[in-house]
Design goal:
Distance between the termini: 68 Å
Strand order of the largest sheet: 1-4-5-3-2
Largest sheet: 5 strands, mixed
Number of strands: 5
Strand content: 15-25%
Number of helices: 3
Helix content: 40-55%
Radius of gyration: 27 Å
Length: 141
Protein backbone atom coordinates (compact mmCIF):
# COMPACT_ATOMS: atom_id res chain seq x y z
CA UNK A 1 0.00 0.00 0.00
CA UNK A 2 1.45 3.40 -0.91
CA UNK A 3 1.81 6.37 1.44
CA UNK A 4 -1.21 8.27 0.08
CA UNK A 5 -3.55 5.34 0.80
CA UNK A 6 -2.24 5.08 4.34
CA UNK A 7 -2.83 8.80 4.91
CA UNK A 8 -6.37 8.55 3.47
CA UNK A 9 -7.07 5.55 5.70
CA UNK A 10 -5.88 7.49 8.76
CA UNK A 11 -8.04 10.43 7.68
CA UNK A 12 -11.10 8.17 7.49
CA UNK A 13 -10.39 6.64 10.90
CA UNK A 14 -10.03 10.11 12.42
CA UNK A 15 -13.31 11.30 10.87
CA UNK A 16 -15.05 8.15 12.17
CA UNK A 17 -13.62 8.78 15.64
CA UNK A 18 -14.93 12.35 15.48
CA UNK A 19 -18.40 11.11 14.56
CA UNK A 20 -18.39 8.78 17.57
CA UNK A 21 -17.05 11.32 20.07
CA UNK A 22 -18.35 14.63 18.73
CA UNK A 23 -14.94 16.24 19.22
CA UNK A 24 -14.69 18.81 16.45
CA UNK A 25 -10.94 19.11 16.97
CA UNK A 26 -10.50 15.65 15.44
CA UNK A 27 -11.82 17.04 12.17
CA UNK A 28 -9.05 19.61 12.26
CA UNK A 29 -6.51 16.81 12.68
CA UNK A 30 -8.18 15.00 9.78
CA UNK A 31 -7.52 18.08 7.62
CA UNK A 32 -3.83 17.69 8.38
CA UNK A 33 -3.94 13.99 7.51
CA UNK A 34 -5.73 14.76 4.22
CA UNK A 35 -3.09 17.38 3.41
CA UNK A 36 -0.40 14.74 4.00
CA UNK A 37 -2.27 12.36 1.69
CA UNK A 38 -2.26 14.99 -1.03
CA UNK A 39 1.44 15.59 -0.43
CA UNK A 40 2.06 11.85 -0.78
CA UNK A 41 0.09 11.82 -4.05
CA UNK A 42 2.34 14.61 -5.32
CA UNK A 43 5.37 12.42 -4.61
CA UNK A 44 6.80 14.36 -1.66
CA UNK A 45 8.93 12.48 0.86
CA UNK A 46 7.69 10.94 4.11
CA UNK A 47 9.34 13.57 6.29
CA UNK A 48 7.69 16.34 4.24
CA UNK A 49 4.35 14.56 4.55
CA UNK A 50 4.74 14.42 8.34
CA UNK A 51 5.62 18.11 8.51
CA UNK A 52 2.63 19.03 6.33
CA UNK A 53 0.30 16.89 8.47
CA UNK A 54 1.61 18.51 11.65
CA UNK A 55 1.52 22.09 10.34
CA UNK A 56 -1.91 21.87 8.67
CA UNK A 57 -3.55 19.78 11.43
CA UNK A 58 -1.97 21.69 14.30
CA UNK A 59 -2.64 25.04 12.62
CA UNK A 60 -6.29 24.13 12.06
CA UNK A 61 -6.67 23.13 15.72
CA UNK A 62 -5.11 26.38 16.91
CA UNK A 63 -7.20 28.45 14.48
CA UNK A 64 -10.41 26.69 15.54
CA UNK A 65 -9.56 27.12 19.22
CA UNK A 66 -8.95 30.85 18.75
CA UNK A 67 -12.13 31.35 16.70
CA UNK A 68 -14.22 29.33 19.14
CA UNK A 69 -12.73 31.17 22.10
CA UNK A 70 -13.66 34.57 20.66
CA UNK A 71 -17.17 33.43 19.81
CA UNK A 72 -17.93 31.96 23.24
CA UNK A 73 -17.10 35.25 24.99
CA UNK A 74 -20.51 36.58 23.89
CA UNK A 75 -23.48 37.53 26.00
CA UNK A 76 -24.54 35.51 28.98
CA UNK A 77 -27.87 33.68 28.88
CA UNK A 78 -29.86 36.59 30.35
CA UNK A 79 -29.10 38.70 27.26
CA UNK A 80 -28.63 36.02 24.59
CA UNK A 81 -31.53 35.48 22.18
CA UNK A 82 -29.92 32.21 21.05
CA UNK A 83 -30.50 30.84 24.56
CA UNK A 84 -33.75 32.58 25.49
CA UNK A 85 -36.38 32.94 22.76
CA UNK A 86 -38.15 35.78 24.59
CA UNK A 87 -35.31 38.26 24.12
CA UNK A 88 -36.10 40.60 21.26
CA UNK A 89 -39.84 39.91 21.38
CA UNK A 90 -42.39 42.70 21.67
CA UNK A 91 -44.83 43.13 24.55
CA UNK A 92 -47.49 45.74 25.21
CA UNK A 93 -47.53 47.60 28.53
CA UNK A 94 -50.77 49.35 29.47
CA UNK A 95 -49.50 51.14 32.56
CA UNK A 96 -46.50 51.27 34.87
CA UNK A 97 -46.47 51.01 38.66
CA UNK A 98 -44.66 53.70 40.66
CA UNK A 99 -41.82 51.25 41.37
CA UNK A 100 -41.04 50.95 37.62
CA UNK A 101 -42.68 47.56 37.08
CA UNK A 102 -45.73 46.46 35.14
CA UNK A 103 -47.78 43.31 34.86
CA UNK A 104 -47.98 42.14 31.25
CA UNK A 105 -49.61 39.25 29.44
CA UNK A 106 -47.13 37.31 27.30
CA UNK A 107 -47.51 33.82 25.80
CA UNK A 108 -50.67 33.22 27.83
CA UNK A 109 -49.15 34.01 31.22
CA UNK A 110 -48.70 37.05 33.45
CA UNK A 111 -45.15 38.37 33.67
CA UNK A 112 -43.50 41.22 35.49
CA UNK A 113 -41.85 43.78 33.26
CA UNK A 114 -39.25 46.17 34.58
CA UNK A 115 -38.27 49.30 32.75
CA UNK A 116 -34.66 49.45 31.56
CA UNK A 117 -32.73 52.45 32.88
CA UNK A 118 -33.21 55.45 30.62
CA UNK A 119 -36.39 54.17 28.95
CA UNK A 120 -39.66 56.08 28.75
CA UNK A 121 -42.30 54.87 31.25
CA UNK A 122 -45.31 55.46 29.02
CA UNK A 123 -47.74 52.83 27.77
CA UNK A 124 -47.10 51.16 24.46
CA UNK A 125 -44.92 48.53 22.82
CA UNK A 126 -41.66 47.48 24.44
CA UNK A 127 -38.96 45.05 23.41
CA UNK A 128 -37.60 42.47 25.86
CA UNK A 129 -33.88 43.14 26.38
CA UNK A 130 -33.12 40.76 29.23
CA UNK A 131 -34.80 37.99 31.21
CA UNK A 132 -34.01 37.76 34.91
CA UNK A 133 -35.91 34.87 36.47
CA UNK A 134 -39.56 35.57 35.68
CA UNK A 135 -38.97 39.29 35.09
CA UNK A 136 -38.52 40.97 31.73
CA UNK A 137 -36.22 43.97 31.48
CA UNK A 138 -37.74 46.03 28.65
CA UNK A 139 -37.10 49.20 26.70
CA UNK A 140 -39.45 51.38 24.69
CA UNK A 141 -39.52 50.78 20.94
Amino acid sequence: MDDANIWWLLTGVTVAAELMTGTFYLLMFALGLAAAAIAASLGLGVSTQLVIAAVVGGGAVVAWHLLRGKKSVGKNAEFNSDVNMDIGQTIYVESWQPDGTASVKYRGANWTAQLQAGSDASSGNFVIEQVVGSRFIVKKI
